[in-house]
Amino acid sequence: xxxxxxxxxxxxxxxxxxxxxxxxxxxxxxxxxxxxxxxxxxxxxxxxxxxxxxxxxxxxxxxxxxxxxxxxxxxxxxxxxxxxxxxxxxxxxxxxxxxxxxxxxxxxxxxxxxxxxxxxxxxxxxxxxxxxxxxxxxxxxxxxxxxxxxxxxxxxxxxxxxxxxxxxxxxxxxxxxxxxxxxxxxxxxxxxxxxxxxxxxxxxxxxxxxxxxxxxxxxxxxxxxxxxxxxxxxxxxxxxxxxxxxxxxxxxxxxxxxxxxxxxxxxxxxxxxxxxxxxxxxxxxxxxxxxxxxxxxxxxxxxxxxxxxxxxxxxxxxxxxxxxxxxxxxxxxxxxxxxxxxxxxxxxxxxxxxxxxxxxxxxxxxxxxxxxxxxxxxxxxxxxxxxxxxxxxxxxx
Length: 397
Ligand code: GAL
Description:
Blueprint lengths: L2 H26 L26 E3 L2 E3 L1 E5 L5 E5 L4 E8 L5 E3 L1 E2 L4 H5 L8 E3 L5 E2 L3 E4 L2 E4 L8 E2 L12 E4 L4 E8 L10 E9 L4 E10 L3 E2 L3 E3 L1 E2 L13 E4 L3 E3 L12 E2 L11 E2 L9 H6 L3 E5 L9 E7 L5 E7 L3 E5 L23 E5 L14 E2 L5 E11 L2
Antiparallel strand pairs: 1-2, 3-4, 4-5, 5-6, 7-19, 8-18, 9-12, 10-11, 13-14, 14-15, 15-16, 16-30, 17-29, 20-23, 20-25, 21-22, 21-24, 24-27, 25-26, 26-30, 27-28
Beta-D-galactopyranose (GAL) binds next to strand 27 and strand 28.
């Protein structure tokens, strides 16, 4: 190659690079999706780019849907798995934080593993012992995808399918999914609807609805991983947590409830008063050993309640961001990110470090189809399953 030709090749390469970085920059700086409401803000946190979620999976289009309210709170949800991808809320200094841990593009969401980041989980959130249950005299066998047990609806569940999306305004996204009779081993065609609404009171409301044509079981929940100091900003051990529960459902070594409902008072699992998540997480208690930390269903009520009730409050120690969880569900799974192991690259080029997020999954109790004393999770034709949970944000100065 003569010198002039080599120079030209280098020039072309440099131009191509400059153009491509220009392209990336303009894509990432979409003003529609970048939140910046504080003059003192140094690093604006934006929503992921819509383009990074536009794909076709199993013949269905995926996308990223954006909700916003007048307070500049913004949410991003993908119809892949009905997943909450980002939630931008201001901290005590007015700086915008993304409090949802997860990926900022679709590809890693589609890969295997145990990441339920932000997912709409179904048909049955949490575990069913040995993947078996009996309903109307018939025994059903489900996938055992968590040691000997069935977890979060199976190998694919609702978190790895494409939902139909319908967004008619800035505040509401309706997702629907038809889970066919026999899918993942469950009986009945289940028509499922999940509606995300971002209210002007800084609440993300999730309404679940379902009907079936054959008696079935279901337990729908959302599996958002929260870090109230901002995704990727350290662990959640100094977040203060309060849960409105006096009792819980203790588990065996495979995290299946023993069937007993036990009092929390006097145990390191009691969060009746606000307590740092990390304050007692290493305490010598059999349940904390089984859970490798907190991974337990808290009993909020003995049945689903007609009204929304406050279930838990969490405060980010650095941000002052307050999350209140309200629900009609009788249970709340508190999971302290014990299986997070920096195996995944998350938003902002960070890793999903050990205990760098917590989940508060509103739900019926685990393994209810096999537990006579737990509130029922069955649904019959002619009935409509309906339940609402709310994640509400504010700040504590
Ligand atoms: C939680 C569950 C944990 C773990 C996690 C996903 O809902 O309680 O045990 O499976 O999901 O890694």
